[in-house]
Structures are given as structure tokens and as C-alpha cells.
Amino acid sequence: MKIDPNWVAGFVDGEGTFYVGVNKNPTMKSGYQVLPEFRIVQHKKDIQLLYALKRFFGTGVVRVNHDDRYEIRIRNLDKLAVVIVPFFKKHQLHTQKKFDFIRFAKIISLMVSDEHLKSEGILKIIDIASKMNRADKIKTLETRKEIENRIVI
């Protein structure tokens, strides 16, 4: 299956997700881990499309999402920084999702600069991520308060 880059951008506009989670992780110096991911979920009948997108991007994992839905998920920071972000900067999104992407790209840039390894950097990332289309904004804001209570800003 040959895929056109402009088709991919349009498809992601409707079906893709840019997400950044911040979770407690005592093994990290800051006590928190930043987990960015790009994901597309489809019904199992379209699993071949997910594999085609994996080949197109040259990265990602195709796996069960839930019940009869599958996803391609890309979490590797290097691949997000070198493949995904440049692709969507060149092939821009046209829906509200473009604003999530702009925020996602900023977070990836901060992570490439190792800002996610410092409490202050995690706070910056949380501020940006909390403006993204997220279902867990309350959890994100609670995490922010926990970090603020641990450091002096």
C-alpha cells in the first residue's frame, strides 16, 4: 500500500492523537516521567492501514488498543523528534488538532533539551500539556501542585 504524505496529514487530522502524560516514577531524578506519544486507533478490519503507516513512518508499534480496536503508537523520543515532528511541520494539520501538535512539538523540543529531567522543566511541560485536548486535566494539575510543593520556585 503506497501512502501519500498529504493523505496521511488529512487522516491524522481526523484520527490521530498527540498526547503527553506526566506520571510519578520514583526511579527518575525528578520523581516524575514525561511520556509523549503519537497514536492512531482503528477498528481491526483496518489493521493493514496501521501497518502501512508504520512502514510509512519507519517506526511505531501496532498493538491492541481495546476490544476490536488496534493502534499504531510511537513513543520513542528520538523518533518523535526526528520523524513525527518534522513530518507534521512540513505537512500541516488543518483542524484544531494543529494546536495540539504545536504544543506537542514544543514539549518534544523541551525534552530533547533535557528539560524533562528537571522539576522546573516538568512544570513547563505540564503547563503546555494542560492546554492540549486531554481527558485527565485534573490529574495533570494535581501533579503540578505535587511538584510545586516539592521545590522552591
Walk me through the topology.
Layout lengths: L4 H11 E9 L7 E12 L3 H11 L3 E6 L2 E6 L2 H14 L6 H16 L6 H11 L7 H14 L3
User: Radius of gyration, Cα only, in angstroms?
Assistant: 16 Å
The proportion of residues forming helix, as a percent range, comes to 40-55%
β-strand amount:
15-25%
* Structural class category: alpha+beta
Low-confidence stretches: none
| Total of helices | 6
CATH homologous superfamily assignment:
Homing endonucleases
Order of helices and strands: HEEHEEHHHH
CATH topology: Endonuclease I-creI
CATH architecture: Roll
CATH class: Alpha Beta
Number of strands: 4
Note the main sheet. Answer: 4 strands, antiparallel
- The order of strands across the largest sheet is 1-2-4-3
For the terminal residues, how far apart are their CA atoms?
Answer: 52 Å
Chain-averaged pLDDT: 92
Tell me, briefly, the overall form.
globular
Number of domains: 1
Overview of the molecule:
With 153 residues, this protein is of the alpha+beta class. It has one domain: Homing endonucleases (Endonuclease I-creI). 50% of the residues lie in helices and 22% in strands. It has six helices and four strands; from the N terminus they run H-E-E-H-E-E-H-H-H-H. The protein has helices at 5-15, 47-57, 77-90, 97-112, 119-129, 137-150, and strands at residues 16-24, 32-43, 61-66, 69-74. A four-stranded antiparallel β-sheet has the order 1-2-4-3. Helix 4 (97-112) packs antiparallel against helix 5 (119-129) and helix 5 runs antiparallel to helix 6. It is globular and about 50 Å long. It starts with a helix and ends with a helix.
